[in-house]
Amino acid sequence: MGFELSSWYVKRIKQLNKYALAHSGALYLIRWLSFKRQ
Q1: From the centroid of its chain, how far is CA 30?
Q2: Please, what sign has the CA dihedral across residues 9, 13, 18, 22?
Q3: How far apart are the first and last CA of the chain?
Q4: Residue 27's pLDDT band (boundaries 50, 70, 90)?
Q5: What distance in Å separates the CA atoms of residue 27 and residue 33, rounded to the nearest whole number?
Q6: Rounded to an integer, what distance in angstroms lies between the CA atom of residue 10 and that of residue 17?
Q7: What is the 3-state secondary structure (H, E, C) of 1-38?
Q8: How far apart are CA 12 and CA 32, in angstroms?
Q9: Distance from C-alpha of 25 to C-alpha of 12, rounded to nearest angstrom
């Protein structure tokens, strides 16, 4: 039980990391584009 829960937790954290990376990447891209436009 404990092992199953921890493996699910690890999967969940990896998923969240992917979302966080995608989000920060998008923010960086938007900032870069707005900087280039100036």
Answers
A1: 16
A2: positive
A3: 56
A4: very high
A5: 10
A6: 10
A7: CHHHHHHHHHHHHHHHHHHHHHHHHHHHHHHHHHHHHC
A8: 30
A9: 20
| Nearest of 35, 34, 14, 32 to residue 24 by alpha carbon | 32
**Identity of the residue numbered 35:** F
> pTM of this prediction?
0.52
Whether the predicted pLDDT of 36 surpasses 80 = yes
Amino acid 4: pLDDT: 81
